[in-house]
Design a protein that fits this description.
Elements: E1 2-6, E2 13-21, E3 28-32, E4 36-37, E5 44-47, E6 51-57, E7 66-73, E8 84-88, E9 96-100, E10 104-105, E11 111-112, E12 124-127, E13 133-136, E14 140-141, E15 147-148, E16 169-171, E17 174-178, E18 181-185, E19 188-190
Antiparallel strand pairs: 1-6, 2-5, 2-7, 3-6, 4-5, 8-9, 10-11, 12-13, 14-15, 16-19, 17-18
Length: 199
């Protein structure tokens, strides 16, 4: 079977794979979308050209429930995930984007600034004025204030260190400078050490 979706040039076409159950290794669906962008894996594919071609092949020897693909034209990604409103851009009339609520970010307003509300009020709170991130209470750490101090678990953090400011001491780590970023991997952070005592 061949499906052709054709709309005005440069329209944003969103295809959502709601259900997909076909015979493994024998039934295939091919998707041709000129100039795709964003995450091209299931469940949503975005085509910015206004055109898409879907080709489904089946040997018809063994049938499952099939597939269900829905599509929308010039709509916001994932309807802004219920955490924002869909707005029309000024430069190109057909372009739409999400205006996220204050606790959310991302193209589809699906990324919280502060995961799990930072464990508020016991573990920390969400500061939306500066870095828009969690500020942990003394005995908690991590991006969402979910790890106790000291912790035996590792976690990722992106620190924005301002020039000439002090940062926490660190040991047994690796550091690589790439462009304007310095990546620090591993090691230990001295949470409560006085800065003059860290060598």
């Amino acid at each position: 079977m061949l499906y052709v979706l054709s709309f005005s040039p440069n329209a944003v076409l969103r295809l959502r794979f709601n259900h997909f159950a076909t015979e493994c290794s024998w039934d295939h669906i091919g998707l041709v979308v000129p100039e795709t962008r964003g995450n091209e894996t299931v469940p949503e594919v975005v085509a910015t050209s206004g055109y898409a071609l879907l080709h489904f092949f089946s040997d018809a020897a063994y049938n499952l429930t099939g597939f269900h693909i829905s599509y929308s034209v010039n709509s916001c990604p994932n309807n802004c995930s219920g955490h924002g409103k869909c707005s029309t851009g000024n430069s190109i009339a057909s372009r739409v984007y999400c205006e996220c609520d204050k606790y959310w970010k991302g193209e589809a307003c699906d990324i919280p600034y502060c995961r799990n509300n930072c464990g508020s009020p016991d573990q920390g709170y969400c500061d939306l004025t500066g870095e828009k991130s969690c500020v942990c209470n003394d005995s908690w750490q991590g991006p969402d204030c979910a790890l106790s101090v000291p912790s035996t678990e590792s976690y990722w953090v992106m620190s924005n260190v301002k020039p000439f400011s002090q940062s926490l001491g660190r040991a047994s780590h690796k550091a690589v400078v790439h462009g304007k970023l310095m990546w620090v991997i591993g090691g230990y952070t001295f949470n409560y050490s006085s800065f003059h005592m860290v060598l």
